[in-house]
């Protein structure tokens, strides 16, 4: 099948959003990713957001939008190293701290960029972080289906978005029927700082292979019951989580980094500027240009060992 000037190859993935294919530009031979989805106002909005934030070293590049009567096709940069979820799963979701630090530095740079462009992501998780290269050294922030435009820096939203296990408490509290499960520190409405909470969860997952507050979801549990239970678990276990961090084999710097991101109150939560200046991230090896918007160097895998980042 041919779409515009691109030939569709094998399917890379699918979901409620549609399908993603590997594609090839017929004129240049460039390998691309092609996302096919139903034509809708939401779909066009996602493309507009991707176009707005495209152009940064750690954000997936939006190349072209092809519109048909009922379907639209996003032509995107192809990530040769796959996604972070698949990569981390291969190693039991327990990556070396140095690798996680290098990945996190790049994610923070990407989040700062999209915020500067007036966008919040609201679905930060390993599956939405890609590797540009097969050596798994250069990450790309992707999938802006849940993203929202920030018409002002402190804009509050009330329509929940994202993945429950990575949602900040103030996002969970926006679900109808979950309001009474929220504590006094949880505001009614969420801002771009919800992404910072998700970053804290992501770092914890990559280091420890588990969620800090996740519950086992019983098959009989309704989505709302699960959301309420998740919110209650966060509020009940927050202090216990801080205590457990003292037993972690990871450095005290990364423990502090995670704790400051997982603040219940957004007003006390670490900002991206503070995260970038945090001792844990400042200890990461800089790229050869000494810039966060440049890819981190890495050595290739040898003898079946995981490639080192940074």
From TrEMBL:
Cross-link (Glycyl lysine isopeptide (Lys-Gly) (interchain with G-Cter in SUMO2)): 125
Keyword list, A-Z: ATP-binding, Kinase, Nucleotide-binding, Serine/threonine-protein kinase, Transferase
Catalytic residues in the record: 123
Segments for region (Disordered): 282-310
Keyword Kinase: yes
UniProt GO molecular function: ATP binding; protein serine/threonine kinase activity
Protein kinase domain span: 6-281
Record-linked SUPFAM superfamilies: Protein kinase-like (PK-like) (SSF56112)
Membrane listed as a keyword: no
SMART domains for this protein: S_TKc
Positions of ATP binding: 35, 77-79, 143
A Pfam entry, by short name: Pkinase
Xref: PANTHER family: SERINE/THREONINE-PROTEIN KINASE IAL-RELATED
Family membership noted in the UniProt record: Belongs to the protein kinase superfamily.
Protein name in UniProt: Kinase-like domain-containing protein
């Amino acid at each position: 099948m041919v779409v515009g000037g691109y030939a569709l190859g094998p399917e890379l993935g699918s979901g409620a959003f549609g399908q993603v294919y590997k594609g090839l530009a017929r004129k240049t031979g460039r390998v691309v990713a092609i996302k096919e989805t139903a034509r809708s106002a939401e779909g066009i909005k996602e493309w507009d957001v991707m176009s707005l934030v495209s152009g940064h070293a750690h954000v997936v590049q939006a190349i072209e939008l092809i519109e048909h009567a009922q379907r639209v096709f996003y032509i995107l940069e192809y990530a040769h190293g796959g996604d972070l979820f698949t990569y981390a799963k291969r190693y039991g979701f327990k990556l070396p701290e140095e690798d996680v630090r290098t990945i996190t530095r790049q994610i923070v740079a990407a989040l700062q960029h999209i915020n500067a462009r007036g966008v919040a992501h609201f679905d930060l998780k390993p599956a939405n972080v890609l590797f540009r290269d097969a050596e798994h050294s250069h990450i790309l922030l992707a999938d802006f289906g849940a993203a929202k435009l920030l018409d002002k820096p402190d804009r509050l939203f009330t329509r929940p978005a994202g993945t429950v296990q990575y949602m900040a408490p103030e996002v969970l509290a926006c679900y109808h029927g979950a309001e009474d499960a929220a504590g006094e520190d949880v505001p009614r409405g969420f801002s771009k700082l919800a992404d910072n909470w998700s970053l804290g969860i992501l770092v914890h997952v990559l280091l420890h292979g588990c969620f800090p507050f996740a519950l086992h979801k019983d098959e009989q549990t309704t989505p709302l019951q699960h959301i309420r239970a998740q919110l209650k678990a966060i509020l009940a276990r927050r202090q216990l989580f801080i205590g457990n961090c003292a037993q972690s084999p990871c450095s005290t710097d990364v423990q502090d980094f995670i704790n400051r991101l997982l603040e219940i109150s957004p007003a006390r939560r670490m900002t991206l500027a503070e995260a970038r200046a945090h001792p844990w991230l400042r200890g990461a090896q800089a790229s050869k240009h000494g810039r966060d918007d440049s890819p981190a160097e890495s050595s290739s895998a040898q003898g079946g060992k995981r490639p080192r980042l940074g």
